[in-house]
Each structure stands twice: as C-alpha cells, then as structure tokens.
Amino acid sequence: MVEGPPLRADAQRNRARILDAAEAVFAEFGTRASTEQVARRAGVAIGTVFRHFPTKNDLLAALMKRLLAQLVEEAGKHDLFAFFTHLVAQAAAKKTVVDLLAGSGVDIRLPDAVGHLEEAVGKLLEQAQATGAVAAPIRLPEVMALLASVCQGALHGGWDEQLQARTLTVIFAGLKQD
Amino acid sequence: MVEGPPLRADAQRNRARILDAAEAVFAEFGTRASTEQVARRAGVAIGTVFRHFPTKNDLLAALMKRLLAQLVEEAGKHDLFAFFTHLVAQAAAKKTVVDLLAGSGVDIRLPDAVGHLEEAVGKLLEQAQATGAVAAPIRLPEVMALLASVCQGALHGGWDEQLQARTLTVIFAGLKQD
DNA sequence: CTGGATAATGAGTCATGACTCGACTTGCAG
DNA sequence: CTGCAAGTCGAGTCATGACTCATTATCCAG
Q1: Which of B132, B113, B118, B135 lies closest to B83 in space, CA to CA?
Q2: Which residues of chain A are within 8 Å of residue B163 when distances are taken between CB atoms?
Q3: Which nucleotides of C are covered by protein (CB under 7 A)?
Q4: The whole model's pTM is what?
Q5: Which residues of B touch A174 (CB under 8 A)?
Q6: pLDDT tens track of chain B, all 178 residues?
Q7: 3-state secondary structure of B142
Q8: Alpha-carbon B114 to chain mean position
C-alpha cells in the first residue's frame, strides 16, 4: 500500500465517482459489464478509469474492499441471525460482493479484508453462543460457508421473501441445535 | 423438439464427442471457455460444433439437459441426505450444472428438465418425512433452495471434506426439526 | 498570475471469441 | 460401384472489450 503524493482535487472527485459508478453498474449487470459502461455512468472518459485503476481487476479489487468494509460495519449493528437475514435480503443489491466472493471469473486477493469480515462474524457467533441461541459445537468456518452459500442461492435463484424466510428458518434451526 | 431425418453415423459419433468434450471443458474452465476449446478437445473442427449446435447457448442447453437427466437418475439411488452429500461432493465435477442453474451469464430455459429434478427430489422429501427424518412443515422449495445454495457454496468456496461435513450437519439438523 | 506538473480525453491497437461459408470428404441408397 | 446429399473443414468476418498514448485541459505552488 504505497501512497504517492496526495491526489489533486479533481482526481479525488473522479476516483470516488468511478467507484460509485462501478458499484452500480456491476451490481446491475454483474462483473462482466465493460469498463466503458462504468466510465459512461461515472461521466468520465475511459482513459480516466484506467489512470486510476490500471486494470479492470484493480477496479474490482478496490470496489470489493469498500464493499467488504461496509459489511463489517453492518455486522456490528446486528446479531448473527439478523445479519444473515439482512445479507440475504441485500444479496441482489450486493451482487458484486457475492460474485467476487464466489470467484466468478476474476481472481482477487484481499486476505485482510475478508479476514476482517470473518472476525466480525466470529464475534456475532460468540455472542450467539453465549446466549444459547446457537449450539456450542458450531464453529466459524461452517457459519461463513452457510452465509456465502445462502447469499449465492438467494442472488441467483431470485428467491421471494417467503422462500428467503423459509430457507433461513431451516438454517437457524440447524444452528440452534446441532 | 422437431426431429429431422436420422443423422449419418459419423455425425452421430461427432455429436456425442462434442457433448463429452463440452462437459469436460466447461467443468474445468467454466462456461466461459471458448467453443474453439471444446472443438479441439473433441478432435473436430469448429465448424462442426456449430453445425450441431448453432449457437453456444444451444450447446450449453443440450449439455445441461444431459447433466440434469443424470442427476435425476442418481436421485433414485439415494435418500434425501445422501443425495445432498453426494451432490456437494460432486459439485466441482459438475461445475457446469451449478454454473448454469446459477444463471451465470447464460440464459437457458429447460423448464421440464428442471421440473423432473424437482419431482425426483420431491419424492426423496416425502420419503424422508414419512420416516420422520425430516420435519413435517418443510416444503420442497426451501429444500431445492438449500440444495442449490450449498452446491454453489461448495463449488466456489473450495470446501474441504471436513467443512462439507460440518456444513451439511447444520442443514440436516435444521431439516430434522424445524 | 502563470508555468509546469498532474490529470482527462477518446480515437486507436490488439486480442479474443462467436459465428459464417465456400471448398472439400464421406456415408450410404439404389 | 457411383452420385450426391449430408457432413466436415478451417480460414475469414465481425463485434466486443481491455488497455495505450499523444494531445489537450486543469489544478495549484510560488
């Protein structure tokens, strides 16, 4: 993470705009959407996008980092079950994260960012187990696995609210008593 | 499903080879692998592939149909929990089905083929509920949803055997008592 | 103000991949 | 056998999309 000299004001503004545009475009069309499309939505020429993010992968990585940070923050506002529910409901909006966590075509390494999310969920798990809401033998890996799975399922399957609820009910029951 | 006159012997052979090659290639590289690659593996010129399957989508649809039929057949050999376990273990090998059921980029409509799978799983569910292995209020949609989710999770997350087992344990517990 | 460094622009390059088509082969009916 | 319809071949077309770079525009330190 080498920081050069600080960015010029216009550059900073554009960088932010590009990330916002990328979030919207990739959420709507998936990570296969073109860089052109992102540039257009950001109201910026394509060269500018590549000045800030030398490759499309770099753009995706930067976006991913931002989105994961948001998730970590949200984790702090919920208990484990509520976090699950919230994520599933948001799955479509956060298509990018789900896609990327799924490793669909693009490879991106963000060990620390993902680590922070695991850490946050780990805390929720501890709390839930302290309350007895989740059975003792449950460990973090399977909770993360279930979280990722159910997000992908919800995203790709186009679940309605009722199906979301019924599916989560099964998982919560499974977590409660192993 | 209009059938023209029967295919010539060599054409039939090639059609089968192409489908086999497609299964292998798409399983290894995902559905983004090129038609060229499939042709090479089949030992056939690219024009031949396009003679049999006018578009890449047609090829994927035909392959999907075959794979789903296999799944339906396998469903008959297992009880519900065993089928889950089997599918998860095979997730990587059947990447294509998972990808396509996930609708990743390609749109394919195979309502009847998917319908048959649902039917087969429906039977397993009934049996499991008759035995008391699965709680009564569970319905087919959430079972299908869980099945799809966990396959995607396993595929994209690269779960090891232990994680597969632990994750499935949670789901099975959830199905047993709602 | 202003000069030079920083940034933006967008037409152009290059690679890839789906799909076409006219020349050539080959299975098979008669 | 043999003629020809059915099938194969693979170089070529076209579209798309990542990335470049010479030119032009904009910031901001002094």
Answers
A1: B118
A2: 141-142, 145
A3: 6-12, 16-22, 26-28
A4: 0.89
A5: 169-175
A6: 667 778 999 999 999 999 999 999 999 998 999 999 999 999 999 999 999 999 999 999 999 999 999 999 999 999 999 999 999 998 878 887 777 666 555 566 676 778 899 999 999 999 999 999 999 999 999 999 999 999 989 988 889 999 999 999 999 999 998 6
A7: helix
A8: 9
